[in-house]
Amino acid sequence: MRQIITLLALAGAGVTATAADGIKLNQLGFLPGADKVAVVPDGAARDFSIVRAGSDTVVQSGTLGQATKAPESGDTVRLAHFASLKTPGRYQLRVAGLPDSPPFEISASAYQAVNAAALKAYYFNRAGIALDAAHAGIYARAAGHPDTQVLIHASAASPARPAGSLISSPKGWYDAGDYNKYIVNSGISTYTLLAAYEDFPAYFQAQRLNIPESGNGVPDILNEARWNLDWMLTMQDPADGGVYHKLTNLKFDGMVMPAQATAPRYVVQKTTAAALDFAAVMATASRVYAPYDAALATRMRSAAQQAWRWAQVHPRDYYRQPADVATGEYADNDVSDEQAWAAAELYITTGDNAYYQALHAPEQAMTVSAWSDVRGLAWLSLARHRTTLGAAADQALIASRVDGLAQQLAAAWQQSPYGITLQKKDYVWGSNAVVLNQAMVLLHAYRVNGKRAYLDAAQSGLDYVLGRNAVELSFVTGYGTRSALHPHHRPSVADGIAAPVPGWLVGGPQPGQQDQQGCPQPYPSALPARSYLDHACSYASNEIAINWNAPLVYVSAGLQALTPAAP
Ligand code: G3I
Ligand code: 9MR
């Protein structure tokens, strides 16, 4: 670790870290039938070989691609393509003049463990439950935040629920490294897990996560999502269908364990964005849980419709952070995307054409989703359900929206020096989730039209977060030979265990460095792809979050499920 830090520090001081840099690849490895690429710093070598790990036995050799300067990371690199190596085993990539790459596997189950860990991470972030040793192992901890006595904040007061009155709003996942619960961010996170189940049901039906509900006849991904859905349902005001924006402390907790964080909790302001995100998720959940629990499905569907109706009467109730509240905002002054997404999910679930009309499909663009921009989720869901949609739905439009964005992403991927879909503009707070949400779009397009380039471009997204990046790190805690060690995650900081809670995707490089003042050491570099600090102080590059893990779950399962087996 120290060696990497030193290298990055040099890069930050303006020394170009080319020859000293190592080979960058997915440290977990590859499915036999997958595309396989490594990034090699430019030097004298023109060839590469692949050896059995820890030996000199060459199993394959090849020629490096042309040298290309990568402005986001300030280096010049060549790509090594080795998709034709399909034999399961443990290997290293070798280039003369460089240290061998980290070892990697070719295996038919390459991403099963990381996928399960990425889901189990949600269990580790559950509010209101003790994690017992049988399920949490060394990460067992006492319960925190029961949230059975939550204050109505002045911003959320209503006749039946005046300021200072109490409601019960237990369960749910902590949003991230903090202990608050936010409907907007819960929306995209929970949806993405449900979408993974809708797209890859057989994969998830076979999966066991060892969570308290395991073995109850419901797939564990749905058991885990239920923990948050139960909380979300309590965030709806039964009097009018409106949904509180968040359940929060007034200020962020210190870096303590959940049980030590006992500040009063509030529900804050009903917002249009919260109501619409809630409507979209409950509409989705209603169809997903129907085979397991018909009464729950009915309840969710009606909750979705009530929230939708509230939002139509309150179309511009944007979140305004009250003066006495300082926690995450998830504020957004454009809810046209939330409206479109909710309309799409309600249309898919109910078949009611009025929702399709409310979607205004011809005017809706397709974008890579983020908590603040969910219109793309409407298109992904419509594409998923295309074969069962009614006549109102414009099938050609749905296919062309998904394919249109996939084409753009594939073009960026083909031109990228690192062979990735990330571009300069994508290095934002949570950039690691941007690349995985891009991969999620590509996987949907691949499902629609089977263009192999889309599957390969999606693969590059998972490769990136698992090590094929400028800082040569797996951004998933506990996975890969060199992975993020110090996430901004209160339990990981406060539990006294050296290893961070596993299975979490950290936010990733982005040049904003909004946390620099509170950090005892500088970022190693200002370059977008290297502006990353593996220190617990760094909430702007090294926090974890439920909305970032969700596309990791989707993409790792999707590649497992969709990559053709090697002949
Ligand atoms: O919308 C503007 C855009 O117009 C502008 O071009 C761009 C330039 O930087 O900034 C955009 O705003 C960004 C905003 O996210 C919307 O994406 C801000 O710069 C950026 O600072 C902001 O980051 C958010 C961060 O909270 C700070 O508010 C992250 O997206 C969001 O994921 C993060 O979420 C936090 C929660 O508040 C609290 N819990 C932890 C969680 C993860 O860090
Ligand atoms: O821990 C907080 C993290 O979850 C948020 O994403 C981040 C940005 O809103 O804020 C963190 O809290 C910091 C606060 O903003 C400033 N003082 C230090 C806090 C954490 O150490």
Automatic annotation (TrEMBL):
UniProt cross-references to InterPro entries, sorted A to Z: 6-hairpin_glycosidase_sf, 6hp_glycosidase-like_sf, Cellulase_Ig-like, Glyco_hydro_9, Glyco_hydro_9_Asp/Glu_AS, Ig-like_fold, Ig_E-set
Endpoints of the signal sequence: 1-19
Reactions accelerated catalytically: Endohydrolysis of (1->4)-beta-D-glucosidic linkages in cellulose, lichenin and cereal beta-D-glucans
SUPFAM superfamilies in alphabetical order: E set domains, Six-hairpin glycosidases
Domain Glycoside hydrolase family: 111-555
Residues annotated as domain Cellulase Ig-like: 21-98
UniProt enzyme class: hydrolase
Residues of the active site: 534, 543
Family assignment from sequence similarity: Belongs to the glycosyl hydrolase 9 (cellulase E) family.
Keyword RNA-binding: no
Name by which UniProt lists this protein: Endoglucanase
CDD domains per the UniProt record, alphabetical: E_set_Cellulase_N
Enzyme Commission (EC) number: 3.2.1.4
